[in-house]
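Table S5 (text form). Sequence records supplied for joint modeling of the two-component complex.
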Amino acid sequence: DIVMTQSPDSLAVSPGERATINCKSSQSVLYSSNNKNDLAWYQQKPGQPPKLLIYWASSRESGVPDRFSGSGSGTDFTLTISSLQAEDVAVYYCQQHHDTPWTFGQGTKVEIK
Amino acid sequence: EVQLVESGGGLAQPGRSLRLSCKTSGLSFGDNAMSWLRQAPGKGLEWLGFIRSKTYGGAAEYAASVKGRFNISWDDSKTIAYLQMSSLKTDDTAVYYCALGALWFDPWGQGTLVTVSS
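The corresponding structure-token record, covering 231 residues in total, follows.
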């Protein structure tokens, strides 16, 4: 199974500041046929189901604010919140869909400082 | 707007079976894959499996942890997807979500809690 490791486990950021979450896969998730990375990011607020933010590592889902961006390739990926808002307090997960079983990172909790 | 609503959760004894339902609305039934995932209390997310759309044959794939115990199916006439769970273990205690898609998941239902305990 592909192991997804996120860092840090938690972070506190001041409103308006940048938040950066890292995700590392135990093997490359680059799909050679289309040169896209099989990596998605989700946001889960307390008491709610996860919400898709990013797919193909850097494609923002419709309706997701543009302060959320994804980057990276191969085994190393980053989710960036460019200017943290109070409503962004949540746990964020990365997920690979390169090889079954699809697997998730352990989650990164983002809080307001 | 696509909506998914799970039901069927509750308390089950170890070794027993339970069937969860995922009622869909707002989508072209038969053109979408459906996945099931779970989240143990206070824990992260675990993918359980997905069923392909009828257009792509309707076959399912499962995580090794549930293969042979869990079965995902469609009921076309009721626009419902099912997760049949058998030989339940205490480790199966979790909130179970259905979610649209086979590779990434959007949207998700609100989830239904399954507690396996004697």
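Note: Chain B is about 0% helix and 45% strand.
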